[in-house]
Amino acid sequence: MQILVTGLLLGGTYALIALGLTLQYGVARIMNLANGETLVAACFVAFWLFTVVEVNPLIGMLAIAPIAVALNWLIYAGLLQPLVRRARNRGMLEVDTILATFGLLFLFQGLMLLGFGGGYFSYKFLAEPFLILGDSYGLNRVVAFIAAASIAALLYLFLYFTRYGTAIRAVAVDPTSAQLVAIDVPRMAGFAFALGGALTACGGTLLSTFYTFNASMGVVFTMKALIIVIMGGVGDVRGATIAALILGVAETTVASLIDPGLTLATNYALFILVLLFRPQGILGRASA
């Protein structure tokens, strides 16, 4: 039971990180390999706000999220939208954006290494025990899970119960058909990319409250997010959430019962199993 609860608490934060990439890849058709660097940058900003300005990370998230929206919108408008316009098909767009965001990955990583060095950082926030079913867990992990679940619930309500959210889902399903019903596809794609960056930044802020981080770990979280997106079904926020919880429980089980060094191998094993037996994802539909 302790392994299960710990895995779910970790998976809740993973879900928020993966939802950002789900919007960027599923709606904007941008495979953002710099997604993990957005997460790490948010970790450093939260760390600075807490240790220097003495701002609660949960409150600091209210400033980090809008900044992430603005920066990701600028990246989309200045770098990625020209690639979208010139792409003749989805395959060409994916190749171009993978190469572009691959370069961004090293640019952002280099800037963070220059500013913070290669050391590991952490800070104590709500580092006290919290009892669940008689077992003790870190209060910071519990609060991070509740915050992540609340943000994911708000995203679900926005996507499924507002006209703007419906337009975003329509673009995710078929951009060409969405244009036929007067949906501004480029605008929706840009907004989805910016919103995805904000979700990833929120996930990074919450992760920093209980996780030791450094400037070079973004690649690992980009891969985790990509695995979750594929497992859940591209563009499906519900599938991504379920896949993130499964991944969190699987990682915790292997780390607790076998070897912590095998957690990344567990991620890839799950990824390969999904590709072999359910390539459309957990909640995805097979192509006709």
UniProtKB/TrEMBL annotation:
Molecular function GO labels: transmembrane transporter activity
Domain of life (superkingdom): Bacteria
InterPro entries linked to this entry: ABC_transp_permease, BCAA_transport_permease
Gene Ontology CC annotation, any one: plasma membrane
Keywords of this entry: Amino-acid transport, Cell membrane, Membrane, Transmembrane, Transmembrane helix, Transport
Annotated membrane topology: Multi-pass membrane protein
Membrane-spanning segments: 6-27, 34-53, 59-79, 99-122, 142-161, 191-213, 225-250, 257-277
Subcellular localization, as worded in the UniProt entry: Cell membrane
GO biological process annotation, one example: amino acid transport
Similarity comment: Belongs to the binding-protein-dependent transport system permease family. LivHM subfamily.
Protein name, entry field: Branched-chain amino acid ABC transporter permease
Organism: Bradyrhizobium jicamae
